Structures are given as structure tokens and as C-alpha cells.
Fold this protein.
Amino acid sequence: MTASPAEPHPVRLSPPAEAAPLPPVALYVHVPFCVSLCPYCDFVVYAGSAARGPAARLDAFVEALLSELRLRADAADATFGRPGIAGRPPLETLYLGGGTPTLLPTSSLAAILALVRERYGIADGAEVTIESNPGPDERGDARGLVDAGINRLSLGAQSFEPALLRRLGRRHRPEDVADAVAEARSAGIGSISLDLLYDVPGQDEAAWDRTLGAAISLDVDHVSAYALTLDDPDAEGLTGPLGDHLATRAGARRWRVAAVRDQDEDTAAAQYANAVRRLGAAGFRGYEISNWGRPGHESRHNLVYWHRRPYEAVGPGAHAFDGSTRRWNAARLDGYLRALAPGGGSPPALPPGASETPDAATAAAEAVILALRLDTGVPLAGAAAGPLAPHLEWALGSGLLERVHGPGDEHDHDPGDERVRLTTSGRLLSNELFARLV
Ligand code: SF4
């Protein structure tokens, strides 16, 4: 799909806030294990015997992860002081993602949360999320999760169509999603999110509509709906020794080549529009391109990313950001374990990885792109037009952006109430606009 340019509308953007290293307000913990690998998966995941059985590497990983948490906490203490003092707030959010973090024993999850609480601080009322898969042998013990301090669950439902789940390589059945939601509710997890996939090969509009209806009928608090993307991390140069992705396996590569042939742009657009309609009608606010939440259930952790606020991250392939520099751990588990759990009496060291600091113009563009993902959009202001203004004017003229009035949110640097945000067409074509902005 393409958008046609039209008459420009004048846009003026306020200048970006000065970037400086800041203490983290959020922490991401990556747990890189799944029972089996889905062929479309681009996350850092080890499956099969690494995840289960006598050769499983979970215990070694947890030991290494705890070491990384301590080392990163030491560094934060040295730079910002200990949590709880002025200028070093406790964490507002903690997110255990993967992979399937609920494959870890509850005692390990409790140990991770206890260490985070001790060394980083967790604010009263903080959002503490764990990702899980719905299968009975993957979703963990909901009561144990609550006892460990988890208060939000993100379930990888993906589809409610058995044939599509099989095609996607998923292990669970549609009814497992309902069971997982019921268990989580009865254990006292106060916020539940479902991940759904559209633009899946073989998924016609009726199948997607049934999946949306099934998700809505479970009365969850949040839905993430993502188009199935089949990018090639190898071709993008992300899989080297310091890369944040693992190489794609040959079988998965063949699956993706076949799947791409079955994807259809117009069907994907219609499916997205249906999600906007149905989730909106069911009382969800589409607060981000791919995310819908009931009031008060928006993902506070992901909002930290979209507001470009500082976050720490641990685990293979995890990305952190301190307000100016982005740092990541290399994806490979062997190097991670060698550095952090070396054995033989050697002290642990930080794992291999890399970092980059965008220049001011790139940082400003990133901030606008991230903010435009949200329905609060970006503020207009009385400052002189910046370098991005012509592109935003083009997007306004093309119907990809619209002007709205109203306050943004507490993290805006501009108090003005005139804003621009993506229209539904703009959300569908956001990549085209974002490519112009960088
Ligand atoms: S369950 Fe999720 S994280 Fe695990 S392999 Fe499948 S897509 Fe990847």
C-alpha cells in the first residue's frame, strides 16, 4: 500500500529534551528457553534439550543471570547511588520475557525477584510482568507466580484456530488459553494480556475475526496484535558474535520462504482494521499501534520504551538504554555463561555485547518515531520548524497523521495541547513514514 502526497500542513515541533545518562526506571529480564522453537521466531531462544531434561541449562542460566543482575546493580550504584536515595528511584516496572520464563522453577523466579527488589528497588504498585505460553506444561504455577511478586501475565495465545496454531509450530490448543486465563485470575493476577498474530499464512478474515472474538470473550485486560513478520536477521547482520540475534536454522528459513508467499498485504490491512474496530467496540483503547488496553491496563513497561525513558536489561540478547546510550548483550548463551558463571573460582564478568550512542538528530528522530506509535502522538509547539517538520507535513497532507487537541501524558516535555498522531491508515503505513524520519 502507498500513500499519495497532498498539500502540506504547517507543523512545528518542540526541540528534543537534552539526553543524559539516567538511572533505570524499568528492568527487562530475558529468559532464553522454550520447549520447542516456532519457525517464525526471531527472539533469542534455546529449545529442546537445553530447556528440558538432564542436559537442561536452566540452572546454569539462573546462576549467570543472578551474577549479571549483581554486576549491573554494582555499576548503577557506583554511577547513581543506591536505590531509594534522591535521584535513584526504585523500578516502576519489571518484565520477565523470553522465551518462556515460566519454564524456570518458581523458586528461581522468586530468587530473581528478591534480588531485583534488594538491589534495584521495586516501587509500591510497580507493574511486574511475566510472559508465558498457554500450554499446561509451559505456563507454570499461577499461585507460585503471584507469591513471587508477579502481578501481570502476558500470554502467547497467537490464534484460536487449531490449524493455524499447528502451522505456526505452537504447542498449545485454543482451550489452553481459556484455562490459563482462568488459572491466572483465580490465583489473583490482576492484569492479563494476550498476544495475537495476524497476516498468518492460511488465516482468512473470518478466522481472524473468530480469534478476535475469542480473545474478547475471555475478558482479558490487554491485547497485543502483531502482523507476522518474517525478516531475516542473518541478512540484516544481527547474528555475529556480538549480535543480539541467533542465526536462523535451515528448517525455519525454508518455512519462512514458503510462508511469505502466502502473506497478503491487503488481507493484513483488513485484519488490522478489524482489530481496531472490534477491540475498540469492546472497550479497549488502542493506545499504541499494536496494543490495546482497558483503562489502567496499558503496559507500563512498554510505555517506558515508547517514551524513551531509561531501562536496564539482563540476559542473552537483552537491550538496555540509559537515556543516551543503547547497550546490548550478545545473543549466544555459551558466551553469556562463560563470562558470568566461569567456574574454577574465577570471578564473574559482564557478558560480551556492544553499545551505540545515537547523535542528537538521530535521537530526536527516534523520540518522535516512538511517540508517534502512541495514540497521544507528539506535541506541536511554537518553536521554529525542525528538520522532521516537512515529513510530518507530508504525512498530515497524506492522511497518515491527524491533528488533535488534548494533553499528552506525564512524560511529555511540552505542555502544549495541540498534537499530531497517526490515523488508522497512518498506523498501517507507519513504516513508510518512519523511514522518512530517520
Ligand atoms: S513460544 Fe514464543 S519465544 Fe518461544 S519459540 Fe515460539 S515464538 Fe519464540
